[in-house]
Amino acid sequence: MRPMRGFNRGGGGGFGGGFVGLESMAAKLAVALVAFSALFLATRGGQGVLLLLNPTDVLRGRVWELFTYAFIAPDPLGIIFGGIIIWSIGGFLESTWGSRRLLMASVGITVFAGLLTVLLALVMPMASAYAGGSVMTTVLWVAYGLVIGRGQANFWGIPLTGNWFAAIGAGFTVLRLLTAPSWQFLAPELFSLVLVFAYVRGASPKRLMLHLQHWRLQRQLRDRSKHLRVVGKERPPDRDQFLN
Predict the structure, then answer these.
(1) One pLDDT digit (tens) per residue for the chain, 244 residues
(2) Which chain positions lie within coiled-coil regions (predicted)?
(3) CA-to-CA distance for 130 and 136, rounded, in angstroms?
(4) Whole-angstrom Cα distance, residue 41 to residue 19?
(5) Are 30 and 83 in contact (CB under 8 A)?
(6) Residues in a beta bridge with 53
(7) CB under 8 Å to 218, separation ≥6 — which residues?
(8) What are phi and psi for residue 158, nearest 5 degrees?
(9) Helix pair angle (162-179, 187-200), 10° resolution
(10) Cα separation, 58 vs 97, whole angstroms
(11) How many CA atoms lie within 13 A of 120 on its CB side?
(12) Can you tell me the distance from the alpha carbon of 43 to that of 4, in angstroms, rounded to the nearest whole number?
């Protein structure tokens, strides 16, 4: 898959792209995926399992697994294609969003999806080990398509709209879901699809806090209004009656 570096929101053709420099955030994320995955493969018979997300371990205090699992691809093909997708698609998103927002979307959503999986483990059985490299690549893939929208993207040489590109990314998760023993094995991926759609469409922690503050203010005003009394026009004024 070679994403396009340019696009036309009106539906016109784009032009081919490549990889951003090694100093970019996208390249650093790709290098981190390769490095942590290689470390996991070298130590998976021992301490390497501590890099995966185990909800039970996190509930016991191993909170670092929420972050390390995001950079684990459990097989060589996953490492290669994951690194390419993160570097290429991430580079486009970084040029559009900036480094900080790319980091929030890729790592932030992956970590939050893992956290939701851990919380779900409090009420139902979940899988015991999750590798989140596929979660991060899915997030970036779908985000890339949603950002382009009706503009033109490129899927293995086939021109299609960004929305269809995002749908293909979500479709890969659905196909994996059909072959998985149960949906719990893909819980982080399923959560990430919802989160990335909400994030690209404008949802963010800052906006959520603003809505929460607005709701609290409205509630305080309603509570105060319950203590107010309406004075009729025919009632003679009595200033002392309304003094506290």
Answers:
(1) 444 444 444 433 333 346 788 889 999 999 999 999 999 999 988 899 999 999 999 999 999 999 999 999 999 999 999 999 999 999 999 999 999 999 999 999 999 999 999 999 999 999 999 999 999 999 999 999 999 999 988 777 888 999 999 999 999 999 999 999 999 999 999 999 999 999 998 865 565 556 566 667 777 777 666 666 655 556 555 555 554 5
(2) none
(3) 12
(4) 26
(5) yes
(6) 130
(7) none
(8) -95, 115
(9) 160
(10) 31
(11) 19
(12) 37
Backbone region of residue 177 per phi and psi (left: phi > 0; alpha: psi in -120 to 50; beta: other values):
alpha
User: Which residue ranges make up each domain of the chain?
Assistant: 25-203, 207-242
Are 26 and 94 spatial neighbours (Cβ–Cβ below 8 Å)?
A: yes
Residue 152 β-bridge partners = 161
Instruction: Report the DSSP beta bridge partners of residue 159.
Output: 154
Q: DSSP 3-state assignment of 73?
A: coil
Q: How far apart are the first and last CA of the chain?
A: 73
Structural tokens at position 60? 């016991």
What residue has token string 């893909």?
Answer: 186
CA distance 26 to 155: 20
